[in-house]
Write a structure and sequence with these properties.
elongated, mainly beta, OB fold (Dihydrolipoamide Acetyltransferase, E2P), 10% helix, 204 residues
């Protein structure tokens, strides 16, 4: 397995947890989602979903990742997965997407924490310990350091697995997702970067 592939899948797991990044760097990261306006030199300009346009500095050592389609059946007992989810009024978690990580990313950013899809959103990176197949999807029983949770994954949600991409994929009009920190003069510093590739846009 190549160094760049390992880097890509590890970045994928890191992107799902600003918590672990903050613990090691003593900074507060931010997630940016939007459409690429341009990428010139080392400056990525992005029109955010919130409506404004921001600049992101992309250092030479920052890897770029993407996703390819996977199947719900790929999430087997023993798999390491990541899933953003919404908490219903009954307290149950329903996934909005599912990321099936390769073995190289096992244990990275492990845990269950609040996410920014809304006040009732969470992210869980964990091992699948058991599952129940229902009429509407899979109920995954997940275990992570310090706890466990159960997430229902509907049949119609996107299921993906991470793959390496490159800076040449940072083209105008492509959708992107980044974990960034505040930089000088209002320019963000990219820490983790995902881009749409082959029609597959980041879903988290």
């Amino acid at each position: 397995m190549s160094f760049h592939y390992k880097l890509g899948v590890l970045c994928a797991a890191m992107a799902l947890s600003s918590v672990s990044f903050a613990q090691t760097h003593d900074v507060k990261p931010e997630r940016i989602r939007g459409d690429i306006v341009s990428f010139k030199g080392d400056l990525l300009t992005v029109h955010r979903k919130s409506g404004d346009t921001v600049a992101i500095h992309v250092q030479p050592n920052i890897g770029v990742s993407a996703f390819k389609p996977a199947r719900l059946a790929d999430a087997r007992v023993g798999s390491y997965v990541g899933t953003p989810a919404l908490t219903g009024s009954d307290g149950k978690l329903t996934a909005t997407s599912l990321i099936v990580f390769p073995e190289a990313a096992r244990g990275t950013a492990e845990g269950h924490f609040a996410y920014d899809f809304g006040p009732n959103s969470t992210m869980t990176n964990a091992n699948v310990v058991s599952m129940v197949t229902g009429a509407t999807g899979q109920e995954l029983h997940l275990s992570y350091k310090g706890g466990s949770s159960t997430v229902t994954v509907p049949k119609n949600v996107p299921v993906v697995t991470p793959v390496p991409a490159s800076k040449t994929d940072l083209m105008a009009g492509k959708k992107m997702f980044a974990v960034v920190t505040a930089g000088a003069k209002g320019v963000y510093e990219a820490q983790v970067l995902f881009v749409e590739k082959d029609g597959m846009a980041p879903q988290f």
